[in-house]
Design a protein that fits this description.
By secondary structure, this protein is an alpha/beta fold. The chain has a single domain, classed as UDP-N-acetylmuramoyl-L-alanine:D-glutamate ligase, CATH 3.40.1190.20. The chain is built from 10 helices and 14 strands. The strands form 2 sheets. The protein has a 10-stranded mixed sheet with strand order 5-4-1-8-9-10-11-12-13-14, sandwiched between helices. A 4-stranded mixed sheet has the order 3-2-6-7. Strand 9, helix 5 and strand 10 form a beta-alpha-beta unit. It is globular. The C terminus is likely disordered. The structure holds adenosine-5'-diphosphate and 1,6-di-O-phosphono-beta-D-fructofuranose.
């Protein structure tokens, strides 16, 4: 079973305005309110790919109930700890000339509620996959992911972490199976953000990372597999609608491919890229048929033995 943990899930309020004018009343030409948060998005994409997941995390207030309702409508097991104070945040995603996001803070999680979630995570079985994704609500310590990982006794539990800065960096000593930084997140974690991509990945390896999937938005992605091989995904051109959840979709695609025991790294990256790209070309998480339509178009180049020369848009 794949368990996704979203400590600070959200309802994502997508709105499209023709042109965003700060300091003025802007009117949407399109809007939608869709359950999100990084782990939730991983579960939503995996549901599209017919891979069962259990979504864990905290939910609060009427927004939390709506989030759970949406997950259940997609046949995702939503096993959330209900928080008494505050409400699940609403994150605003504005599409205009460019994308603008305003993410909320999230509910107050009490010590008892935190312990109840840790208890649930202790129930995860050997061979299961645990995906830790996204930000944490303000009342939880930054060490929460470390707390979660230090209580996992079975090394066969496959851990995936997708978070920013120290939240991610401090989990590396637990040797996560997969991390998926985007370029900005990668730079936040390394001692020298101007260093070559090779040196940046090397630094993360030394800290304990196994597979590192670097997503680069419209530039595609690069998979640095744990065995040292490197694969570059060439980007597809198409109409970008919203990149919200594109990175989460990549994580889901990668994990879904592993359900097929014989999947090669190339195949896993192809699935990851098809899912990420399909979501970037959709509003919300893409549907399976969109992923399948892109799968054949994704081009992967093996770069083993040589590190990719990628000039970052610094
Ligand atoms: N504008 C785009 N055009 C083509 N592919 C895209 C675009 N934006 C995202 N993607 C695909 O989705 C993946 C994840 O997107 P990215 O924005 O890097 O993730 P995140 O949401 O974590 O920042 C990219 O690696 C790429 O494969
Ligand atoms: O937990 P954070 O870092 O505040 O991010 C939450 C936001 O990230 C998302 O999960 C999208 O993530 P990505 O675009 O990185 O894939 C949104 O659904 C959500 O609003």
């Amino acid at each position: 079973m794949i368990y996704t943990v979203t400590l600070n899930p959200a309802l994502d309020y997508y709105c499209t305005v023709e042109s965003l004018k700060l300091g003025e009343t802007n009117r949407c030409i399109r809007e939608a309110l869709i359950g999100g948060g990084k782990g939730i998005n991983v579960s939503l994409m995996l549901a599209q790919l017919k891979v069962p997941t259990t979504a864990l995390g905290f939910a609060a207030g009427f927004t939390g109930e709506e989030l759970i309702r949406q997950l259940q409508a997609q046949a995702i097991t939503a096993d959330f700890i209900r928080c008494e104070k505050g409400q699940t945040r609403i994150n605003v995603k504005i599409s205009a000339e460019e994308e603008t996001e305003i993410n909320g803070r999230g509910p107050a999680v009490s010590a008892a509620e935190r312990e109840a979630l840790l208890e649930k995570i202790r129930g995860i079985h050997p061979q299961d996959t645990l995906v830790l994704s996204g930000n944490v609500p303000p009342t939880l310590p930054e060490s929460i992911y470390e707390q979660i990982l230090s209580q996992l006794e079975d090394p066969s539990i496959r851990v995936v972490v997708d978070a920013e800065g120290n939240l991610l960096k401090k989990t590396l000593r637990f040797h996560p199976f997969l991390i998926k930084p985007n370029l900005a997140e990668l730079r936040q974690m390394v001692s020298n953000p101007q260093a070559s991509l090779e040196d940046q990945i090397q630094e993360l390896r030394q800290l304990g990372a196994q597979h590192v999937l670097v997503s680069m938005g419209a530039e595609g992605s690069v998979l640095f597999a744990a065995d040292g091989s490197v694969y570059r995904q060439l980007p597809l051109s198409g109409e970008m609608i919203s990149t919200v959840g594109a990175g989460d979709s990549m994580v889901a695609g990668f994990l879904a491919s592993l359900e097929n025991q014989s999947a090669s790294f190339e195949e896993s990256l192809r699935w990851a890229a098809a899912c990420g790209t399909a979501t970037a070309f959709s509003r919300g998480i893409a549907q399976r048929k969109q992923v399948e339509a892109l799968l054949k178009q994704i081009q992967i180049v093996e770069l083993s033995g040589q590190m990719p020369k990628i000039s970052f848009p610094l």
